[in-house]
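I have a small job for you when you get a moment. Can you supply me with one protein entry, sequence and fold together? It will help me judge whether the discrete encoding reads sensibly. Write everything out right here, beneath this request:
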Amino acid sequence: MTQTCLNFIMLEGKKLFFLSVTFGTLLIFVLTNTEGTGVQQSPRTRHFHKTRSLTRNVLDGDIQPYFDSGTATNITTTPGKTAYLPCRVRHLGDRTVSWIRRKDLHVLTVGRFIYSSSDKFQVIHRDDRDDWMLQVKYPQREDAGQYECQVSTVPKKSMFVTLNVIVSKANILGGPVVYINTGSSINLTCIIQESPVPPDYVFWYHNNQVINYEAHKGVEVQTHKNPRATSTLWIEKAQPPNSGNYSCVPSNADPAEIAVHVLNG
């Protein structure tokens, strides 16, 4: 009985040992497979994950549109001087670019189409370029502010451009009143202040009439655009009829006036 029991126990031990070995093998197999998915993959598994990763990168990076980081986001102009707001979108694909005026959320353009009653807005784009530039013709003070270049992705992507419309001012040195003697020269210098760009022209007026210096002997106008925009009116041997109000009127600045009195004797 003791031997049988021992044999039984041994048999049981063998069976238990066998089961232990079997269970241990199964457990090792499970653990090995479980660890293999995150630590040590088979060549086939590694290829699967590599393919998935590559596909994800293409979807997330190469095809998704993005804005060129070198694009200017602050544009300054003067009243009447056409402004161009840049927007460069890489890998646009089949998406659409829109321009929106932020202060009233008015959609100005969608693709090449204009959604504004004003003819001052126009989008400039060439099929072989990534640029979608918003042209603002004859800008005024009320056109200043922030504009949004938006791409129709999900969610939408936006870039913001600020338009500054600076009103320059003219100033005539020595004003507001100048007294000179008859026979002396009138020498008036006009400086254009706070102008981001030089004026295209500067007109001088005498009593609201344009001075045609080419038709009058002894009258000369010189305009210099650099380094600072200035214009000088010079009248040789002034006489009493030369008295009156003189105005300096630049193309891109508020005008300036001065009163000149030519004294007898």
